[in-house]
């Protein structure tokens, strides 16, 4: 029978769980587990309960699919924003990145991914049907801004949505290519991303 390298199965289990997190190797996982072990019981309980509450109680906005504490997120419930523009993004991190620029005052639509046949992700796996529903229900929207990754998958998703919505007489635009090919929005500096939104170009 294999002898565990850990002095405690409880420690080993903790390391295994930390190592499941993205970007966390086993050495870092060990440091984190040992750090937790040194903390006061009440601090560890707070730490654990924070993630339990996050998983059990967080909501997704019924309008745009952004993360929210309520049925409708703070952005969708803000009537002072520009009702005519809708920015289509891949995920919640992209909403946060664009909001941090302070250059966009319209609304968002979070797809929850992009079309990627290699990963088994098709249009039906994304929040596209609800996007079309928003367009048909909200006659004020006149511009769709594509803010998806500048990759083959991102471009494929852009073209699919454009084809699906082209009969609605909307203006379609895409971020200016200040965002480098293949870059994720979350890793683009705020100034560059802000300029890419302001200088967006017509999608064709």
Write up what this structure looks like.
This protein has 204 residues and is α/β, with parallel strands linked by helices. The protein folds into 2 domains: 9-57, Orthogonal Bundle (Helicase, Ruva Protein, domain 3), CATH 1.10.8.420; 67-202, Dna Topoisomerase Vi A Subunit, Chain: A, domain 2 (3-Layer(aba) Sandwich). It has helices spanning 9-19, 26-38, 41-57, 92-101, 129-137, 152-165, 190-198; strands spanning 59-60, 67-68, 85-89, 107-110, 143-146, 171-174, 201-202. It has a 5-stranded mixed sheet. A two-stranded antiparallel sheet has the order 1-2. α1 packs across α2. The longest helix has 17 residues, at 41-57. The radius of gyration is 21 Å and the shape is elongated.
**Care to count the β-strands?**
7
Average pLDDT over all residues: 89
Largest sheet: 5 strands, mixed
Estimate the strand proportion.
5-15%
Strand order of the largest sheet: 4-3-5-6-7
SSE string, helices as H and strands as E:
HHHEEEHEHEHEHE
Question: According to CATH, what is the class of the largest domain?
Answer: Alpha Beta
Helix content: 40-55%
* Form type: elongated
If helices are DSSP runs of H or I spanning 4 or more residues, what is the number of helices?
7
Regions with little confidence, pLDDT below 50 for 5+ residues = none
What is the total number of structural domains?
2
């Amino acid at each position: 029978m294999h002898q565990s390298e850990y002095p405690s199965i409880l420690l080993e289990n903790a390391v295994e769980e930390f190592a499941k997190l993205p970007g966390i190797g086993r050495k870092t996982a060990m440091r984190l587990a040992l750090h937790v072990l040194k903390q006061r019981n009440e601090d560890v309980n707070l730490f654990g309960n924070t993630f339990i509450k996050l998983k059990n109680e967080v909501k997704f906005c019924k309008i745009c699919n952004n993360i929210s504490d309520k049925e409708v997120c703070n952005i969708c419930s803000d009537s002072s924003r520009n009702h005519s523009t809708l920015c289509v993004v891949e995920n919640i991190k992209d909403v946060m990145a664009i909001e941090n620029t302070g250059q966009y005052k319209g609304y968002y639509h979070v797809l929850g991914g992009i079309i990627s046949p290699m990963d088994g992700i098709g249009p039906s796996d994304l929040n596209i049907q609800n996007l079309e529903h928003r367009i048909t229900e909200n006659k004020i929207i006149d511009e769709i801004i594509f803010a998806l990754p500048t990759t083959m998958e991102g471009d494929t998703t852009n073209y699919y949505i454009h084809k699906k919505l082209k009969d609605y007489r909307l203006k379609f635009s895409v971020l200016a290519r200040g965002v480098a090919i293949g870059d994720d929005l979350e890793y683009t500096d705020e100034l560059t991303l802000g300029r890419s939104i302001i200088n967006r170009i017509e999608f064709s």
